[in-house]
Amino acid sequence: MKIVLHIGAHSTDDNHLISCLLKNVDALAEQGIAVPDPLEYRPVIREVFKAPKDDALSADSRELVMDAILANSDDPDRLVLSHDAFVSVAGNAIKDNKIYPSIGQKMRRFQRLFEGFELEILLGLKDPATFVPALFDRSPETKFSKFIAGTNPAELQWSDTVTRLKQELPDVPLTVWCNEDAPLIWPELLMAMANHDEFTILEGEDDFLRTIMMWRGLKRMKTFMESTPPNSAKQRRLIVGSFLEKFPLGETMNTVIELPGWTEDFVNTLTAQYYRDVEAIEAMDNVTFISPFD
User: Fold this and answer.
1) 3-state DSSP call for residue 104?
2) What pTM was computed for the model?
3) pLDDT for res 126
């Protein structure tokens, strides 16, 4: 059995990916793909990792977790688990100029917990210009100066995070993408998680677009695609991008950032650095990068 761990990042898809797959549990189960309710396994995994390391990785702990996960599944070929706190809580996601400083060690513990199974890891990236403010909003710290202490946002690099993860787990397949591209590559992200039959029509596939596109725009887009079905993933992206540009929902496409010392120039610098950093990740060996330009 292959166990797929969708580990975030924080404040990226906001559970929309796993929610869509949960709407298709029965259809996916027929293909040997199990998508358990996160409420059934997230608390169990959290409790297991609270224990001392040796206890957390014991056979008894593994059996406890697997019983919770597979309570309603019969020996699937693929098991999809998702939680943006698998690596850390939001308040600990950045430290000492690193994004997810403990990602390698934490995923190693997951590998040991699920010993005997194949692992696959999926990670959505997010521009530090919006990622850092989102983490601050979710953290218990009320003063940004204390939250960011010891870290220069301009030094944060996702390529460092990916490198540390691959160094710790070089043989575990890793798939990454930019969250900013998610609306254009949504079907590909669902496929990366579930690996379902390409002819499977997933219920709720457009639910995410409803959160960022006007209802009338989404309706027009669906009508257009029904009358003129896209003949490739690339063509679908062009259609979605066109309708998103014409029918954005309110200010969802433009994030206003208000943090002490964060000028417009500083935010733009962070974003420019982010996309240069993404190019470095795309060039990495043994990393699958989902891009809207493929």
Assistant:
1) helix
2) 0.93
3) 97
